[in-house]
Design goal:
Elements: H1 2-41, H2 46-52, H3 58-68, H4 74-86, E1 92-93, E2 98-99, H5 100-135, H6 140-153, H7 157-171, H8 187-191, H9 193-224, H10 227-234, H11 239-251, H12 253-261, H13 263-277, H14 282-291, H15 295-323, H16 326-329
Antiparallel strand pairs: 1-2
């Protein structure tokens, strides 16, 4: 009976925690839609003026406002706009002359491949490096790795990308200077996938490694001085057993949190990286839309990134609770 009661308590705590986070996520998402919608109305001169250009007459602006429904009350406009978003209508791109949803459906998977590969490479390298730095803190190897971390973390993505192109493409001629073109699944794109994405992935991964390894180092150092770790050592456990059983799990908590919270920064890096390597993803689409004042595409991209960030934070909270049961009861 006691085991059943404990299991029910555990299950109710998990469900209650997830429900609280879901309710918070819905409220935040509602606020995000309001902010993105208001951005459209903060355009100097209005959306019609931005679309028609500075030479548009007042009659033209009034006609386009009526056609787009911009002459209706702002609350009605928001409801219509939100209804369109829910049904997949993200607006029409006047720069590319096609619906924004089609543009994003083609470019988002490519950006996900780039960011996913960057995250994977960063985690594979950053976690062991951070653990090594935490165990060997204030030693020569810790100082060396810290110097490299600060170097890469302080580098802007566009500068690091240009340096990598200069070294590996121009000087050594090992890798192509541009990313693969086309769509996922096309033979030409798949043939250049690994070699063409090498430099963009390395550019984003190096910056992410520098950030993740610093947090991992601090978490390992904090856990090494905990009482349960001292007790494990007193029982005769080896250093590897102590790290794997008592330090690693707790020290991964900051990394899990960063996975969700670092999405905006990683997308900002992807925006510049895709522009440098001419990678036809969401970042390059955003860059081209910004240059041509394609506001529907810009706002749809901002909304998509905000939703992805919110989902990443929600996922990080849930994983956080799985690793640290104390979170569920707080």
């Amino acid at each position: 009976m006691r085991d059943v009661a404990e299991h029910l308590t555990y299950t109710s705590a998990v469900i209650g925690y997830i429900l609280r986070r879901l309710i918070q996520a819905v409220i935040v998402l509602f606020g995000v839609t309001i902010l993105v919608f208001l951005l459209l109305h903060l355009i100097p001169g209005g959306e019609a003026r931005a679309l028609l250009g500075p030479k548009a007459t007042r009659q033209d602006i009034v006609g386009l406002n009526h056609q787009l429904g911009l002459d209706k009350p702002i609350f009605v406009q928001y409801v219509v706009w939100l209804n369109g978003i829910v049904h997949g209508n993200l607006g029409f791109s006047y720069r590319f002359n096609e619906p924004v949803s089609l543009l994003l459906s083609s470019d988002v998977p490519k950006t996900l491949v780039l960011m996913g590969a960057s995250y994977l490479v960063a985690l594979i390298i950053a976690v062991p490096v951070g653990i090594l730095q935490g165990v060997r803190h204030n030693k020569a190897d810790d100082y060396t790795l810290t110097a490299f971390s600060f170097l890469f973390y302080s580098m802007p993505p566009y500068w690091l990308g240009l340096v990598l192109i200069l070294i590996f493409s121009v000087q050594l001629q090992w890798l192509p200077p541009t990313a693969p073109q086309g769509n996922l699944g096309e033979p030409a794109f798949d043939a250049q996938l690994f070699t063409g994405l090498a430099l963009p992935v390395i550019t984003l991964a190096l910056i992410t490694i520098a950030q993740f390894s610093r947090y991992q180092r601090s978490a390992v150092m904090d856990n090494l001085v905990q009482d349960h770790v001292r007790t494990a050592r007193a029982k005769g456990l080896s250093s590897f057993q102590t790290l794997s059983r008592h330090v690693l799990r707790n020290s991964l908590i900051p990394i899990i949190t960063l996975l969700g919270l670092s999405l905006p920064a990683l997308f900002a890096g992807a925006l510049l990286t895709e522009s440098i390597f001419n990678y036809p993803g969401m970042g390059l689409l955003f860059w081209q839309a910004a240059q041509s004042s394609d506001y529907p595409t810009l706002l749809a991209t901002v909304l998509l990134v905000a939703v992805a960030t919110l989902f990443g934070s929600l996922l990080a909270d849930i994983l956080y609770a799985i690793i640290d049961p104390r979170v569920r009861y707080s």
